[in-house]
Write a structure and sequence with these properties.
The complex is a heterodimer of chains A (334) and B (438). With 334 residues, chain A is an alpha/beta fold. Chain A has helices at 80-86, 96-105, 123-132, 145-157, 171-174, 194-204, 219-231, 326-330; strands at 15-20, 23-28, 32-34, 40-42, 44-47, 50-53, 65-68, 71-76, 113-117, 137-142, 164-168, 186-189, 210-216, 235-256, 277-285, 296-302. In chain B, α10 (257-266) packs across α12 (331-344). Classes of the chains: A alpha/beta (334), B alpha/beta (438). β14 (235-256) of chain A pairs antiparallel with β13 of chain B, so a sheet runs across the interface. Bound molecules: S-adenosylmethionine.
Chain lengths: 334, 438
């Protein structure tokens, strides 16, 4: 229940994040658990620094130190960001750098109504809920029944089920449902063929207009989505990529090589040809390997009907070789 | 309806791909777009997203315009029908003589024509090479001309996305190069949402960070923001441009960092003697004066509401309005007390976006943050954050300490012509983030 309100102390049923020498673990705070044979046993969480009796966390303050047999760690109340880093993966997920941009690009604020498909592992959903609550709502869809169900249970356990409706549905085939017609401020799609969903987005977005965003790993998906958006009267269509790099900070001692003494004849001979002293820097090192691509974010505004541009000519420009086709191609103007 | 353009609103004028923020303070207020001066009479009452056509006033040379509500913006590519194109550019020689019209001809054309498409069509028909160009280059040409001759603009409602984009494009150094992706991460990294007390120290983002945090705190919620700044007046441009309702804006308590901390640690002086200070002439005396007054003021037993005052200024050099002599205390007096009360209850997050060395500021302000809660510090170069990183690592009173940097690239997506934009905004500063431990 620890995703809903700020808390000072850990209670039974919370998810607590254990921070242990640069690693994060999500712990389900239950004093007991079922073992493989189905027997109720003491819940003991194994860490690289020794075992942790989960029972001992209950009543502890968030932010406080936890003693382990071979060291210690700290417990932190989960946030959607910490959850994205520790959640059980049922699908590929979206991480904080993209999530942050998605929230801002969709113009989401408390009170917004947002539609998401697919739910996947719920990484983005947690962040959407946090942004739109208490007056807003997230409608999230997945055509994978089990994923949809597990996500719903997770929202329940995390105490945020009031702000989200998770449904099992193929949104490309069946849209978002009539009850959502004209209800959404924003729609987000993370599924393989977002362009097929664009006509449904048109139905779901409020009459006063709204925002759209899709996340696609491949540029071909982006091209098709952009064409569909243009054909349906969206404006401010734009595609971007966001990457975050973590810089490693270290103090480095480096040798200093003095060459200036060579200008004068030295009294001391022979002179040793090696670095004469050391100096210190705090340096930031860019990682050898860092995320190079996650996905393209394509965003657009659906203006209200009165401001939508009526399609004039099809946007297709084909790169044809034969000049004989030019005549046809140019005749598409109405 | 909230969807109508109202006098008093901040509005965004979008002409082609250029956006400008404007305070629509009277029905016939004027705005300058490039060399054009546009009178906005007629906007009030129209719904947002409306498109307006620029109507030249009698003398076209002066580039003064009035506006007229339009059905939609007509695109050149839709109006101009191109009959023939070439296959490649093997026969195109750019010797500067392909245009038959002289510069003077073109000038007269511009003043005489009423429609952009007429101008461009005349240009095209007098060009020797246009029809040999490939369809792609013709398209590119029209897009370029469209940008130049576009006769329409649309009115948009400001929001964080648009304001951040405008401010970054216009004067990135006024907001410490804080780009939209980095701004978006500041909000999520410290878990800003509808609840909690959030602490911000900001000395140079023109109110952008405060606007970001307050927008995520939301309307009709319980969250509060204490917005500390070093000057006499907080920088508020972005905050005001958001058109927040009063209720929401009131939950952002902007205070001078010295006064607020003095109030917190020393309480207010109960010495009842009236402020003694004579009117100092010096311009930079204000903060001294302030200090003096503050310590000689009595503590109000009840916080009285007295909120109307003139703060539309966007820079912090404006003088503090002279406090009325008698019982009426200035707004900042009550703001300091309010901020200090919120600080007593401890904060749920800490955001610093500063020009000064962040180290001292962080060390002081972190004591207000509850254990287990996140912080983030923005700085436009890495070195000060690297120093602070080393210090915090040694103290080990924070967890998950991370220094990050972002990269963002926009794409041109056109059929068969998709590629990254040819220029990218490469500077967006650094974030040092983590969680406060007990
Ligand atoms: C990559 S995952 C989404 C991950 C999610 N954004 C997250 O951050 O955890 C894509 C999901 O879309 C679902 N999906 C694909 N096509 C769909 C469709 N037509 N309707 C509904 N869900 C669909 C898949 O079952 C999968 O769970």
């Amino acid at each position: 229940m620890s995703f809903r309100n700020y808390k000072d102390k850990i209670e039974e049923g919370d998810t607590a994040i254990l921070y242990l020498s640069n690693n994060l673990y999500a712990i389900d705070v239950r004093p007991e658990m079922k073992n493989k044979k189905g027997e109720i046993v003491e819940n003991v969480y194994q860490t690289p620094f020794g075992a942790l009796k989960v029972r001992t966390l209950i009543g502890a303050n968030y932010g406080s130190r936890v003693e382990l047999s071979k060291g210690w760690g700290h417990v932190i109340q989960p946030t959607p960001e910490l959850w994205s880093l520790t959640l059980p993966h049922r699908t590929q997920i979206i991480y904080t750098p993209d999530i942050s941009m998605i929230l801002l690009q969709l113009d989401l604020v408390p009170g917004s109504i947002v539609i998401e498909a697919g739910t996947g592992s719920g990484s983005l959903t947690h962040a959407l809920i946090r942004r739109v609550r208490p007056h807003g709502h997230v409608y999230t869809f997945d055509f994978h029944e089990h994923r949809s169900k597990v996500a719903q249970e997770e929202f329940q356990e995390h105490g945020i089920a009031d702000f989200v409706t998770a449904k099992h549905r193929d949104v490309l085939a069946d849209g978002f449902g009539e009850e959502l017609n004209g209800k959404a401020d924003a729609v987000f799609l993370d599924l393989p063929s977002p362009w097929i969903g664009v006509p449904h987005v048109l139905n779901a977005i409020k009459n006063q207009g709204g925002r759209f965003c899709s996340f696609s790993p491949c540029i071909e998906q982006v091209q098709r989505t952009c064409l569909a958006l243009q054909d349906h009267g969206f404006q401010e269509i734009s595609t971007m990529e966001v990457l975050q790099t973590e810089i490693k900070i270290t103090r480095r001692t480096i040798p200093v090589r003095d060459l200036s003494f060579l200008k004068q004849k030295s009294s001391v001979s022979p002179v040793e040809e090696k670095p004469s002293s050391d100096t210190n820097y705090v340096v930031g090192t860019w990682p050898q390997s860092t995320p190079g691509h996650t996905g393209y974010l394509t965003v657009a505004t659906l203006p209200p009907p009165y401001a939508r541009s009526k399609p004039k000519k099809t946007t297709k420009v084909e790169n044809d070789e034969k000049s004989t086709e030019n005549g046809d191609k140019m005749a598409v103007d109405e | 309806m909230a969807n109508e353009i109202k006098i008093g609103d901040y509005i965004v004028i979008q002409k082609h791909n250029y956006k400008k923020l404007h305070k629509f303070n009277k029905s016939d207020s004027t705005i300058n777009l490039g060399k054009d001066t546009i009178n906005l009479e007629g906007l009030a009452g129209c719904p947002y997203f409306s498109v307006f056509k620029l109507i030249p006033k009698s003398n076209k040379k002066k580039r003064e315009f009035t506006v007229e509500l339009a059905e939609e913006a007509v695109k050149l590519t839709d109006e101009i029908d191109i009959k023939v194109s070439g296959n490649d550019n093997r026969n195109i020689l750019d010797d500067g003589r392909s245009q038959k019209l002289s510069a003077a001809d073109i000038e007269t054309l511009k003043t005489d024509s009423n429609k952009a498409s007429d101008i461009v069509e005349t240009l095209i028909s007098n060009s020797n090479t246009f029809h040999n160009k490939t369809e792609f280059s013709q398209d590119k040409y029209l897009r370029k001309k469209e940008k130049k001759y576009f006769e329409y603009f649309q009115v948009l409602k400001p929001n964080l996305r648009i304001i951040s984009e405008i401010m970054y494009k216009l004067e990135p150094n006024k907001i410490q190069n804080l780009r939209i992706d980095t701004l978006s991460q500041i909000i999520t990294m410290v878990n800003i949402h509808c609840e909690g007390n959030h602490l911000l120290y900001d000395s140079g983002s023109n109110g952008l960070v405060a606007a970001a945090l307050l927008s995520a705190i939301g309307e009709n919620t319980t969250g509060k923001l204490v917005h500390m700044h070093p000057g006499n007046m907080s920088q508020k441009q972005a905050l005001l441009a958001m058109n927040f309702p009063e209720e929401q804006l009131a939950r952002c308590v902007s205070v001078n960092v010295y006064s607020a901390l003095r109030q917190f640690y020393q309480g207010c002086d109960t010495n009842n003697s009236a402020p003694q200070e004579e009117k100092t002439e010096g311009t930079e005396e204000t903060s001294m004066k302030r200090k003096h007054e503050e310590t000689s003021e009595e503590c109000p037993s009840k916080k009285s509401k007295q909120d109307n005052e003139n703060e539309p200024s966007e820079n912090d050099n404006t003088n503090v309005p002279d406090p009325p002599r008698e019982n009426k205390k200035p707004k900042w007096h009550f703001d300091n007390i309010a901020a200090s009360e919120i600080l007593q209850n401890k904060m749920d997050s800490l955001v610093i976006a500063c020009k000064e060395d962040p180290q001292n500021i962080f060390n002081e302000l972190v004591s207000f943050v509850k254990p287990g809660r996140p912080f983030v510090i923005y700085y436009n170069v890495a070195e000060p954050l690297q120093q602070l990183y080393m210090q915090l690592k040694m103290q080990s009173n924070v967890a998950a300490l991370k220094l990050t940097c972002n990269w963002m690239r926009n794409y041109q997506v056109l059929p068969d012509r998709t590629h990254p934009e040819v220029t990218m905004n490469a500077s967006s500063g650094f974030l040092l983030s983590g969680y406060v431990l007990k």
